Amino acid sequence: MASSSSSSSLHLFFLFLITIVSAFICVSSNAFKQTKPNAFIFPVKKNDTTHQFYTTLDMGKPSNYMNMVIDLGGQFSWLDCNQYNISSTYRPIRCMSAKCNATTEGFTCMDCLDGPPRPGCTRDTCAFSSYNPETEMSIFGVVGEDTIRVSSTDGRFSLLDFDIRHFSFACGDIDFSSVFDKGSASQGILGLGRASNTSVATQLSSAFKHVHNKFALCLPSSKQFYFGSIFVGGGPYYFLPHYPDDASKLLIKTPLIVTNPPNNYHPPLSRTDVSSQDYFIDVKGIKIDGKQVSFDTSLLWLNGEGFVETVISTVNYYTVLHSAIYKALVRDFVKEAATNKKMKRVGSFPPFGACFSSENIKNTMTGPAVPIIDLVVKGNNVPWRIYGANSMVKVKKNVLCLGFVDGGSFPITSIILGGHLLENSLLEFDLESSMVGFSSSLLFHNASCSQSRVF
Ligand SMILES: *[C@@H]1O[C@H](CO)[C@@H](O)[C@H](O)[C@H]1NC(C)=O
Ligand SMILES: *[C@@H]1O[C@H](CO)[C@@H](O)[C@H](O)[C@H]1NC(C)=O
Ligand SMILES: *[C@@H]1O[C@H](CO)[C@@H](O)[C@H](O)[C@H]1NC(C)=O
Ligand SMILES: *[C@@H]1O[C@H](CO)[C@@H](O)[C@H](O)[C@H]1NC(C)=O
Ligand SMILES: *[C@@H]1O[C@H](CO)[C@@H](O)[C@H](O)[C@H]1NC(C)=O
Predict the structure, then answer these.
(1) Which of 382, 365, 358 has its CA nearest to residue 438?
(2) How far apart are CA 368 and CA 356, in angstroms?
(3) At 80, is the pLDDT very low, low, confident or very high (cuts 50, 70, 90)?
(4) Which residue owns the Cα nearest ligand 2 atom 7?
(5) CB contact at 8 A, 110 and 22
(6) In terms of pTM, does the model score above 0.70?
(7) Ligand 5 pocket, 433 CB below 6 A?
């Protein structure tokens, strides 16, 4: 059942009914171009209960500190209006203004007459609704902008704080604990969508001349004292003290894949009527300890409609595979584990199919010493290497499971690379050259994504 979260006090006027041409002209950010940051940094935290990665955004005046779940494929940043205090710098985006037209593609208008204006309830406001077929939830959002405070970086430390004016986002009457399967303590979603004018990365790079339209993610693993990072604008990236060199030299590059019709995957609160915001790469095969896993590789490319099938997601925690790929991976991993690592299989712990006693598995810098999984990617001979820390999940004392999940025979995409697999790797998404770079595990270099970035 579809449910609508728009409140009855909101009156929707469709665009053809509106005749007012807005006097509110989008103010360009030229005023900021004199200052010269090259990159910005956001801290990334992990919630161990929900397995969500989030950042805390300092927004508005006085500050609202909003915990926002990082959604790599999100078109918009979303907030729960009810948790956003009145801010003197908040401005609704007027309906049919240039900015409204540029950001929402097929918008509607909202008039809210219910009490004094506040975020989410203003007159003549740009709005849209989003329906997510997976959660069967329809969400109504109004578009507004406010000042956010972001730290610049040199790749090592957080440097100066900048006030970024006109940061646009959508806000709605949204209970984020019901948006995600496992609940959420967040007040929003931070969208980093590929083709979106409203992605955080795109907004920052269009406001600052020296900030390139690229960003990097470094997701922390559990129980770390320091935070991970999102870097916006590109490298260098440093992971001190153990990896003193610029980690962008570690990045293995593979093209971002954009197809027509668009690839198809819907993270929470995404709109289905806009071009895909997701980051797809071309995984050509999988190896275990250097040996090819045998399965029908057309599953990696085709689903009958010509879609590319490996998406990178920060909102899925465990990597999900098409059933045929999953079965082949488990079969070969179990065989390799028994013959070469003498690992002892124990019963399965759903959703995981292959579990082992950890008693005779050594611990190494890169996690449990289990067979190594390589993802072979387009355009590079060097694979995305997955060590025990990213492939195995501790389900209870002395039991480790292969942390991949069977997505069935008709999944939305054949492979969803999830957060657990991405932890402690540096991933760069370059929207200018349309490339994805990955470092494989920083643990291999005795570094990790959890870094102190204050001096
Ligand atoms: C809104 O204001 C209240 C009261 O001052 C404060 O407790 C709360 O943290 C503020 N909300 C945010 C998101 O910062
Ligand atoms: C926005 O789009 C509407 C409908 O196409 C159009 O009437 C309006 O003039 C546009 N606004 C601007 C500022 O271009
Ligand atoms: C992004 O903005 C540009 C210029 O404002 C506009 O031409 C383009 O259609 C927008 N793209 C999207 C996806 O909204
Ligand atoms: C993690 O999420 C759970 C469930 O939403 C919440 O109860 C808990 O407070 C969160 N923990 C932190 C540290 O935010
Ligand atoms: C890795 O780092 C730890 C401290 O975090 C240090 O004790 C250890 O000697 C380092 N190992 C290598 C091989 O550099």
Answers:
(1) 382
(2) 11
(3) very high
(4) 96
(5) no
(6) yes
(7) no
98 lines ligand 2 (CB under 6 A): yes
Ligand nearest to the CA of 206: 3
Structure tokens at 430: 């370059």
Q: Does the beta carbon of 102 lie inside 6 Å of ligand 2?
A: no
- Rounded Cα distance between 22 and 99, Å, is 10
Cβ atoms within 10 Å, residue 108: 19
Distance 303 CA to ligand 3 centre (A): 30
CA 379, 381, 382, 384 dihedral sign is positive
Ligand 1 site-directed mutation target among 63, 64, 84, most atoms within 8 Å of CB:
64
242 lines ligand 5 (CB under 6 A): yes
Tell me which residue has its CA closest to atom 2 in ligand 2: 96
Over residues 233-287, the pLDDT tens digits come to 999 999 988 899 999 999 999 999 887 666 667 666 666 555 678 899 999 999 9
Ligand 5, atom nearest to 446 Cα? 1
More confidently predicted of 446 and 104: 446
Which residue's CA is the closest to the ligand 5 atom numbered 3?
446
Domains belonging to the chain, first-starting first, are 40-232 (2.40.70.10), 247-451 (2.40.70.10)
Query: Beta 108-112 vs 91-92: how paired, if at all?
Result: unpaired
What residue ranges line ligand 3, CB within 6 angstroms? 102-103, 105, 195, 197
Contact 120, 173 (CB under 8 A): yes
Q: Is 318 left (phi over 0), alpha (psi -120 to 50) or beta?
A: beta
Q: Which two tokens stand for residue 228?
A: 């991970």
Which atom of ligand 3 is nearest to 274's Cα?
13
Amino acid at 172: G
Phi, psi of 101 (to 5 degrees): -60, -40
Q: Ligand 5 centre and the CA of 87: distance in Å?
A: 47
Q: How many angstroms is it from 109 CA to the middle of ligand 3?
A: 19
Nearest residue by C-alpha to atom 4 in ligand 2: 96
| 342 φ/ψ sector (left φ>0, alpha ψ -120 to 50, else beta) | left
Instruction: Write the burial class of residue 260 (CB in 10 Å: 0-12 exposed, 13-18 middle, 19+ buried).
Output: exposed
43: pLDDT strictly greater than 90:
yes
Residue whose token pair is 């959703």: 351
